[in-house]
Amino acid sequence: MGDGVELKNEIFFLPWPPSVNSVYRMFVMGKVPRMIISKQGREYFSKVAGLVKELYRIRFEKARLKVRIIVYPPDRRRRDLDNLGKVTLDSLQKAGIYRDDEQIDELIFLRCEVRKPGEVVVTIEEIVPHETKNAKDVEKQD
User: Fold this and answer.
1) Which domains, from first to last, does the chain contain?
2) Residues 20, 87 contacting (CB under 8 angstroms)
3) Which of 35, 68, 87, 122 has the fewest Cβ atoms within 10 Å of its own Cβ atom?
């Protein structure tokens, strides 16, 4: 940027995540619904946290973010990208890369070719917060 502000960015190479349905489990205790993280989910979050701790030093504490998630599925099965995104984004949040996924102002998904055993490449860029725009202004940019 021309104003001397240096914005951080990082690329994360993550293992293929389990499905959102296998990570988050709902049950009712008394009359109160509860959500828990399954053993498979806890193991994946722990694995990502270990990778992040070992390989990446960058953190986006309060920054507004642009996130691009590129998925290389392990096979040709049909999958919803938004489900993959939920587990991926939650794993990076739990690993301390950012405080809350509320920080994400722009989110892009891209599905690519099959790559065994599957991989997710996440690019996170710090961005200058956008001024409040109405939907018509945003649509004109596209």
Assistant:
1) 9-141 (3.30.1330.70)
2) yes
3) 35
